Structure formats: structure tokens, C-alpha cells
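Re: that backbone. C-alpha cells:
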């Protein structure tokens, strides 16, 4: 997937120009600007920084990260107001100097294999303050707007055949979780989940989820207590 998105960098933001998605995008931006207001934010898999550019100035600090240095170069060239830093980071092994209020990931969860979700949620926990939240948004499958699903593997991951302008075609993992699956996977990994129906956003093309860690944190179990 890293290779595919690297090859797609020049044409990536065309998805944000689709006319039928504009109403949803405006609703998402308004909601996000409120949800991240005055938060310290770590953005994972930021890509070309489409969301970064529209949100960073609303946060108290914003770190944009991606595993592709070419994507980060595009982000840096945008000179985004409010962006504290843009840095190379593997979303499965994030490292932060200080815990953050919010981890944000757009169009990322759909590219996780079902058996990678646990590792991702665990990684996010290591970055968040108690009571902090993971905010994610991603595509719903909409017939006529989404690329059709070309195959499903043995554990239920779905894939699309995606052409690029250079004539190449990629087999890209793209999962479309239901509301129930989002609730189940988030709660299984110690998050309280508010997904888009609870948030009353009434989105057609996207889902939006706020997953909050418990606050205060669970009591520590003291092992080897010799006192
Ligand atoms: C679908 S794009 C999303 C870009 C952006 N968040 C957006 O919504 O416009 C997925 C991004 O994930 C990045 N990526 C792939 N594997 C990654 C990894 N292990 N850690 C961090 N980023 C990764 C790719 O480089 C690409 O920029």
C-alpha cells in the first residue's frame, strides 16, 4: 500500500473534488474542527496533508506523520498554519515525546487487514493521555461512487482493482466496516466508541468515529510487591 500511495501522490487529492462528496466533507470538517479544538494532535498516515491543512490551526499543536517521505515533502511545501512538525513515522510503531490528547487518522483504518487492527489500536494507546481519543474517518461503500470490490480473501478482507494514470493497476486492500464492527473492534481494544450515527452527522459517503480511552486509567496491578 505504501508503494501504491507513493505512485498516486500527484493524483491523490482528486478524491476530494468529487461533487457528490462535498456536503459530507463540509460536515466532517466542521465536526473535526470542534472535536480537535485546543487539543494536542498526532496525525497518522497524513498523506498529502489535505486534512492537516484544514485542521492544524484549530488544534493547540499538530504533528503530521506518514511512512512515505515523498508525501511529507508535499505537506512541508504547503506551509500549513498551525503545523508543529511533519515527520516520518510508521503508524504501527508510533513514538511520541509527550502523550497527546488526540490521535487522528483519515482513510487509514480501511487499509488495515482485519488481523492488523489489534496492533494498530495497541499502538494508539501508547500515544494517548488517559481520556484522550482516537478520531478516524473513512469511506462507506457507495455504489456508483466507490470503486467496486474485486475480491474478498479467506478472512474477509476486501480488495479493489485500482488503475493509475500511468496505466498501472494495483490490487488495494479496502475494508468497509459496518457501525457494529467499528463498535466491536474499538471496544474490544479498550476504547469507548462514538461512531457516526451517534454523532448525528448523517454522512452518506463517510463514517466518522471518536474512540475515547477510559479516564481515569485502570488501576495498575503491582507485581513482585516485596514491601
Ligand atoms: C489513503 S492514504 C490517506 C492519506 C490522508 N490521511 C488522507 O486522508 O488524505 C494512506 C496513507 O498511508 C500511508 N501509509 C502506508 N503505510 C503506512 C504506515 N505503515 N505508517 C504510516 N503511514 C502509512 C501512505 O503513505 C498514505 O499516505
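Recovered sequence:
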Amino acid at each position: 500500500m505504501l508503494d501504491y500511495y507513493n505512485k498516486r501522490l500527484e493524483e491523490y487529492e482528486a478524491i476530494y473534488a468529487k461533487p457528490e462528496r462535498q456536503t459530507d466533507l463540509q460536515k466532517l470538517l466542521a465536526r473535526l474542527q470542534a472535536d480537535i479544538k485546543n487539543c494536542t494532535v498526532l496525525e497518522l498516515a497524513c498523506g498529502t496533508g489535505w486534512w492537516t491543512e484544514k485542521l492544524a490551526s484549530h488544534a493547540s499543536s499538530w504533528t503530521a506523520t506518514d511512512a512515505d517521505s515523498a508525501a511529507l515533502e508535499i505537506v512541508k511545501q504547503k506551509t500549513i498554519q498551525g503545523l508543529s512538525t511533519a515527520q516520518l513515522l510508521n503508524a504501527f510503531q508510533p513514538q511520541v515525546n509527550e502523550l497527546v490528547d488526540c490521535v487522528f487518522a483519515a482513510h487509514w483504518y480501511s487499509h488495515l487487514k482485519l488481523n492488523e487492527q489489534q496492533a494498530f489500536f495497541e499502538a494508539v494507546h501508547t500515544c494517548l493521555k488517559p481520556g484522550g481519543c482516537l478520531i478516524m474517518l473513512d469511506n462507506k461503500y457507495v455504489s456508483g461512487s466507490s470503486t467496486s470490490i474485486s475480491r474478498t480473501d479467506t478472512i474477509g478482507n476486501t480488495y479493489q482493482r485500482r488503475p493509475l494514470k500511468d496505466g498501472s493497476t494495483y490490487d488495494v486492500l479496502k475494508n468497509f466496516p459496518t457501525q457494529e464492527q467499528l463498535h466491536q473492534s474499538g471496544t474490544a481494544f479498550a476504547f469507548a466508541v462514538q461512531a457516526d450515527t451517534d454523532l448525528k452527522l448523517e454522512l452518506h459517503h463517510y463514517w466518522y468515529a471518536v474512540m475515547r480511552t477510559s479516564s481515569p486509567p485502570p488501576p495498575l496491578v503491582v507485581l513482585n510487591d516485596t514491601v
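The chain has one domain: 2-142+176-212. Residues 2-142+176-212 form a domain with the Rossmann fold fold (CATH 3.40.50.150).
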